[in-house]
Structure formats: C-alpha cells, structure tokens
Amino acid sequence: MNEAMADHRRTRRGRGEHRWEARAAATRGISGAVALAAPVAAMALLAGVAEARSGGSWRCGSRLILPGMVQEQVLELCGEPDGRTTSEERRTRWNGAGEKVVEIVPVETWTYDRGSNQLVRYLTFRNGNLTRIKTGDYGR
Residue 109: pLDDT above 90? Predict the structure, then answer.
C-alpha cells in the first residue's frame, strides 16, 4: 500500500470515529434516562407484587376469591374454613355534625389449609366483607 492511500484511510477512519463518538454521546443521554427509569419501574412492579401478595386474590380450586366478597359467597365457593377466629376492632370517625363516633366492627379471620403441597390462606372479614387475603407457609 502506498503512502497516499494509507493517509486517506487514516483520515477517513478519523472522521468515522468522530461521527460515531457524537452519536454515542447523544445516545448516552437517552440510555441514561432509560437507566434511571428501569429501577423506578422495577420498584413500582415490586410494590404491586407485595400488595397483591398481602391483600390480593386467591384461587380456590377453579374459583377466584377477591376482596369485597361477602362471607356467604366464600363459603359457597370454598366450603367451610379449617379454622375461624373472631375479634372486634374499634373505629373512630367524625360524623357530619363534627361529633366523634366510635364503632365496634366485628372481625373474623378464616384459615384454609389445603395440605402440605399448598400454602395456607388467611381470609380477614370486617363486617362480613372480605378485606384481606394473606398467604402463609405450606399447610399440614
């Protein structure tokens, strides 16, 4: 290869690298935004998973159990629970006249233990409405 041809290749490569560097610098700004958005999206997803795990839904056989259902619906779909505990909660609120009202709310927690190959489910009802589905360890 002669000297003139080698000089031409060096010059050409130099211009190409310069364009590539400019393109890479512009792309870094975009990838920086993507790099910031990815962890934020992952945290939001994990928060959603945690929420679903603590209060979400439960598949009882082929039927879906959701918060908001009443005790009679759950009994019809899943049968009698393996255990029940009852308690009361005090709720304080202010009525329209600005007076403090204390309510006693009945709370029942039902336990469904479907055996050693399934996770135990704890269903919490307040005033007869399902408010929470909690997942425990494997059953017995």
Answer: yes
For residue range 62-87, list pLDDT tens digits in order. 999 999 999 999 999 999 999 999 99
Residue with tokens 């945690």: 50
Nearest to 56 by CA among 140, 132, 110, 136: 132
Cα separation of 120 and 8, whole Å? 75
Could you list the residue range(s) of the whole structural domain that residue 73 is in? 57-138
Residues 130 and 61 in one domain: yes
Q: How far apart are CA 17 and CA 11, in angstroms?
A: 10
CA atoms of 22 and 37, how far apart (whole Å): 23
Distance in angstroms (rounded) separating the CA atoms of residues 110 and 121: 8
